[in-house]
């Protein structure tokens, strides 16, 4: 081999160039030596879908990435040093039902549940907590039965049930929001069908039942406790579970209280742990999440926490270290969620760190999302021999000490292995022939019109073949090519040149494919358009200086935001006339430019029908009444939110409104309900408090 040092650059993050040095360049550089190890893996295995996500899943505009190859390092390793925390995934068992989006699999099949348990275990997770809608929903209950069977078949893997408020909705509508009897029935069923399993989650011998949103209804907890077996622990969502006398603990969740997508709102996570510190007798279940985006959920209201290329995931896990340590362990961590594709919280398919393990190029992403790099070598491009693992932060490896054949062209790959549940990224190959220095290449890109671009290569040395990959599936063998993209967005263009021996060099550039006009341009929707959910928003910015982010506002309220200078997403615009504005932001968050248009949304939406029932509660006090809006209906959808206000000034946003009035007399109750597309209806009733 030549003694001259020349690099092959593998760009794995925005600022990182990993050079595979094919000749010696210093003793401090990691350097595998000796004969090439036998191939023990394949390119397909190292890049293919290794999760329980359907391989057909192609990603969503709400941030869920396509099925891919994911880091299987244990999630708990991202917690504080010495953590013994058990990590559970919150599992949704409803996919395949007609009222939920298609994700490429049926939740209630043995094969899917088996794949999910296997995937969770491979990431170091201790179990799954299934969101349950009662025995009256045989689809989800069937998923729960399969989860029980699967947990029992895998020693050390546990499961638990979450009683979702959806299990109680019909009872609330029928019984004036008093769901006590239905909850007792559900808990008896859970006890007989699930808690008896040796794989069911228990703390100090007591089965754990999570409860999601059930406190939206009236529940006589004393009667519940006296009517069910097993003495289960009730763990309610949020701080209320830590402060309520009827609960044994609380679990944290993703919370969105402000229309600021780049704010992960970790202060709300802090509030949960601060409350837990004041109630040490309670069970506190922490949470970590990748982000949130409900724009594709039928119940969504454009609530967004940006994933920030994996930073939100890392930050939410690191935040726990403010309150827990080796000497003060967090017993349980729940991931919200394992697979909620509709709210954009799923980690099942892994988390995109925006890195592209490409060669000699730059891309979004930060190296703190990478655990290490693995360098592979191959003689056929399919069967791979691992050469060396190098830590993140090390950007070169010396391959000159390998015993390579002078008659063989080798392919070198670099895999960026992510932190736990971060997607792994594999570089395209560099072809190397011992004793042969390939030509060097530069990639030149220019925009012609609209979404059309021309890419060309210039090289030094003898070039036998040039290939240009436009990053959207279009590959051209030529020194120059033109291409028109179908959609606004970011693309990585790769140019590869080969010499006659097959050795290659690569250059890569990322582009934002966008319209060529100045300022901010909205491609979709059109001005004065009639729109329906989900409403596509396609826009780009060319303000003349660097754009850090783009945000979409509806009537002045932020509905979506993303880093970069393009937007290609979908949001929910509620019924009626609205203004949509798209802004380009600088690195300080200041608007650099904007454009607006008007739309008419959901013109065919039928409004809901508000209904109030009032029930005297003399067992509490002579002037206590239970107001209820659970009987409200919607002819073409469902009631999504509500407000009930009494004339004594009290207000409630839950279906149940338990109010003790200051004195007997005549009062009014006014309910306003909003359906899933924004239609509203208000009704008022007058009643007497004796």
How many β-strands, per DSSP?
A: 44
Structural class: mainly beta
Just give the CATH class of the largest domain. Alpha Beta
Instruction: Please tell me the CATH architecture of the largest domain by its name.
Output: Alpha-Beta Barrel
Please state the CA-atom Rg, rounded to the nearest Å: 29 Å
Total discrete domains: 4
Structure description:
By secondary structure, this protein is mainly β. The chain has four domains: about 10-20 and about 370-515, Immunoglobulin-like, CATH 2.60.40; about 85-335, Glycosidases (TIM Barrel); about 520-600, Sandwich (Immunoglobulin-like), CATH 2.60.40; about 615-690, Immunoglobulin-like, CATH 2.60.40. The chain is about 10% helix and about 35% strand. It is built from nine helices and 44 strands. An eight-stranded parallel beta barrel has the order 5-6-7-9-10-11-12-15, surrounded by four helices. Strands 4, 16, 17, 20, 21 and 22 form a six-stranded antiparallel sheet that branches. A hairpin with a 7-residue loop joins β38 and β39. The longest helix is centred in the first third of the chain and has 16 residues, at about 180-195. The chain is globular and about 100 Å long. Residues about 1-25 and about 360-365 have low confidence and may be disordered.
């Amino acid at each position: 081999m030549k003694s001259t040092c020349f690099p092959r650059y593998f760009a794995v993050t925005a600022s990182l160039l990993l050079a595979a040095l094919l000749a010696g360049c210093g003793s401090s550089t990691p350097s595998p030596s000796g004969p090439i190890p036998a191939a023990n893996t394949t390119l397909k295995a190292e890049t293919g879908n290794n999760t329980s996500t359907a391989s057909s899943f192609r990603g969503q505009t709400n941030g869920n990435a396509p099925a891919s190859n994911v880091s299987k390092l244990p999630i708990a390793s991202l917690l504080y040093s010495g953590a013994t925390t058990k990590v559970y995934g919150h599992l949704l068992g409803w996919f395949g039902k007609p009222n939920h989006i298609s994700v490429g699999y049926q939740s209630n099949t043995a094969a899917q549940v088996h794949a999910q348990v296997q995937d969770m275990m491979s990431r170091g997770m201790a179990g799954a907590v299934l969101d349950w809608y009662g025995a009256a929903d045989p689809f989800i209950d069937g998923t729960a039965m399969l989860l029980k069977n699967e947990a029992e078949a895998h020693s050390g893997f546990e499961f638990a049930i979450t009683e979702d408020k959806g299990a109680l909705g019909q009872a609330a509508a029928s019984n004036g929001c008093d769901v006590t009897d239905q909850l007792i029935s559900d808990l008896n069923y859970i006890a007989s069908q699930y808690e008896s399993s040796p794989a069911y989650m228990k703390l100090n011998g007591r089965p754990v039942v999570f409860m999601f949103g059930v406190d939206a209804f009236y529940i006589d907890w004393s009667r519940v406790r006296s009517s069910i077996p097993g003495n289960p622990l009730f763990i309610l969502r949020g701080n209320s579970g830590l402060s309520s006398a009827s609960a044994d603990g609380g679990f944290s969740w993703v919370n969105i209280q402000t229309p600021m997508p780049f704010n992960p709102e970790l202060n709300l996570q802090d509030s949960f742990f601060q409350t837990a510190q004041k109630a040490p007798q309670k069970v506190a279940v922490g949470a970590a999440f990748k982000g949130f985006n409900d724009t594709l959920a039928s119940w969504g209201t454009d609530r967004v926490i940006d994933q920030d290329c994996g930073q939100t995931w890392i930050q939410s896990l690191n935040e726990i270290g403010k309150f827990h340590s080796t000497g003060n362990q967090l017993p349980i961590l729940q991931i919200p969620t394992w697979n909620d594709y509709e709210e954009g919280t799923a980690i099942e398919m892994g988390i995109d760190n925006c890195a592209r393990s490409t060669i000699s190029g730059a891309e979004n992403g930060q190296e703190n999302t990478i655990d290490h790099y693995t360098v592979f070598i191959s003689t056929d491009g399919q069967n791979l021999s691992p050469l060396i693992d190098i830590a993140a932060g090390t950007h070169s490896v010396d391959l000159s000490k390998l015993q390579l054949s002078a008659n063989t062209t080798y392919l070198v790959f670099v895999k960026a292995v992510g932190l736990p549940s971060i997607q792994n990224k594999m570089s395209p190959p560099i072809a190397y022939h011992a004793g042969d220095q390939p030509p060097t290449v530069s990639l030149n890109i220019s925009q012609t019109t609209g979404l059309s671009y021309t890419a060309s290569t210039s090289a030094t040395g003898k070039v036998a073949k040039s290939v240009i990959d436009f990053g959207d599936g279009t590959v051209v063998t030529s020194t120059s090519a033109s291409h028109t993209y179908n959609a606004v967005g970011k693309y990585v263009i790769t140019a590869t040149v080969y010499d006659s021996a097959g050795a290659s060099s690569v250059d890569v550039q990322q582009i934002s494919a966008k319209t060529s006009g100045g300022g901010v341009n909205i491609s979709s929707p059109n001005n004065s358009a009639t729109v329906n959910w989900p409403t596509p928003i396609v826009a780009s910015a060319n303000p003349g200086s660097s754009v850090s982010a783009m945000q979409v506002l509806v009537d002045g309220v932020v509905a979506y935001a993303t880093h970069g200078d393009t937007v290609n997403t979908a949001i929910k615009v509620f019924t009626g006339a609205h203004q949509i504005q798209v802004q380009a932001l600088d690195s300080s968050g200041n608007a650099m430019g904007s454009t607006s248009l008007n739309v008419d949304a959901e013109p065919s939406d039928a409004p809901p029908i508000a209904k109030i029932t009032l029930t005297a509660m003399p067992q509490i006090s002579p002037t206590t009444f239970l107001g209820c809006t659970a009987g409200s209906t919607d002819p073409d959808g469902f009631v999504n939110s509500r407000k009930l206000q009494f004339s004594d000034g009290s207000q409630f946003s839950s279906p149940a409104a338990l109010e003790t009035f200051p004195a007997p007399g005549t009062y009014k109750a006014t309910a306003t309900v909003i359906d899933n597309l924004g239609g509203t209806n208000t009704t008022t009733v007058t009643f007497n408090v004796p």
